[in-house]
Structures are given as structure tokens and as C-alpha cells.
Amino acid sequence: MWTIIQTELLKLKRKKMMIGIFILTTLLAVFAIERACSISRGSSYMDSFGDLYTLAFKNLSIIYLPIVLGMFATSLFFDEHKNDTLKELLIIPVSKGQLYFSKIITVFLLSLGLCLYTYVFTVLGGFMAGGFPDFNMQTIWQAFILFAEGGILVPLAMLPIVFLAVLGQKSYLLPIGATLLYLLPIIILPAPLMGIHPLASVLCVYSYSSPAAADMVNGMARVIEGVSSTPGYVLALINLIIVSILSSVLSVIVLKKQNL
């Protein structure tokens, strides 16, 4: 299994898409640092390190990361058909289940890599911007937890899109279009969908990681102070796990039934 994953990682070196992903990720992190440097600490928008790391995290994880992972997962399956390498891989022999999970692990590694890359930039930005009264080991650790959660939970929430990538792996259109539709309700009104829509459930999980993350989620969900409409942590996790398991099982079944 590890050999297959290593092969997937080696393939990434040939993907021009990776350069674009890391350039855009860097720009998003730099934008957050620029905001921290230019906004006064007297402003409520940037008076704590929590404001900086939640801004950098929102820039990365709410819209950009799901789109990147949706496109990346689609390209992993599409390229095997386009280059006609899937038949050769299955001669080794590699089961289709192993093939599926090796690509999923690659998606998770990319997600974690982008989140931790942005986290490092954010901490360095905290030093550069200066003046944060709460910039200490506790908030740096809280930021790490939030970015690590995003790195693991966002790809988990994107497994339904990966299923569509498996289903329509001869075309980019279905999974890319579905990714945009999948994101739309989260951008418009995420609160009522927490515990139902996996990406909204991810937001709910974030809100339990630190006070700054809770403020970020409450602001996005437009929850009135003192009247929380977010479901419990366990319910959000159960929703995520059930949807991800179903998506994975269906993906493997579809992959096994496809004629190469």
C-alpha cells in the first residue's frame, strides 16, 4: 500500500497544477499577514493573534481548499484514464480498493500539507506584525489544532465529490460542477446545515477547538450572541463519518464495476 502511495506522490512532481496550488496558497497567507501588518491593534478586527490565524484559516479552508481538493481528486482519477495507466497498475496486481485508498491518502496528505504550510506562515506573520497581546504558546497551539483539523476534516467532507470523480472519471465537468454546487449552501447559510452537510459539520467541529475559532464560526453562521443554533460536536462528527464511509464504499463499488 505504501508503495502505491509513494507512486502517487512521485506523480505529483509532474503535475503543473501543484505549482499553481502552492503559489495561490502562499498568496492567501501573505494577504492575511498584510492585513495584520496594516490594521491597527486598536481595531476589533485585528486586536489578537486569534484574529490573524482565523483570518488566514478562513482564507484557506472555507472556499479555496474544498475547490482545490475537488479538482485535485478529479485529476487523480481522470489522468489514469486519460493516460491509460490504470490497466497497467492493475496488472501489478493492485486491487481497486487499494488504488482508491492510495489516492484518498494522497488527497489527505495534500490537504494537511497546505494547512500546515499556511500555519507556519501565520505564526511567522504573528512575529512580523507584532503587538498581539495574546501571542503565546497557548494560542500558537490553538492555531495548530485548528489548521490540523482543517487538514483532516475538509478532505473527509469532500469524499462525496471524490465519489463523483470516480463515477465520472472520464470527464472533469461532473465533479468540478458538483464541487461548486456543494460549496454554495455553505457560503450562503451554513448554520442550518450543520449536522447535515459535511462541510457545514466541519465548521461546527472547528467551533469547539478554541474561543477564536468559535468566534469565527459564529460570525460565519450569523449566530446571535447567546443563542447558539449549532449542533453538538458528536452529532457533527457522526454526520461526517457516516457520509465519508458511504462515499468510500460507493466509490470502491463503482470502481470495481467499471470496465477498463
What general outline do the C-alpha atoms trace? globular
Q: β content, as a range?
A: under 5%
What is the terminal separation in angstroms? 21 Å
Task: Summarize the main sheet.
Answer: none
Secondary structure category: mainly alpha
Order of helices and strands: HHHHHHHHHHH
Which residues sit in consecutive blocks of at least 5 with pLDDT less than 50?
none
Number of extended strands: 0
Approximately how much helix is present in the residues? over 70%
Radius of gyration: 19 Å
What this model shows, in words?
- The two termini are 21 Å apart.
- The protein contains 11 helices and no strands.
- The mean pLDDT is 85.
- Helix content is 76%, strand content 0%.
- α2 (16-38) packs antiparallel against α3, α3 (49-82) packs antiparallel against α5 (96-129) and α3 packs parallel to α6 (137-157).
- The protein is an all-alpha fold.
- The chain has helices at residues 2-12, 16-38, 49-82, 86-90, 96-129, 137-157, 159-167, 173-188, 198-206, 211-221, 233-257.
- The protein is globular and about 65 Å long.
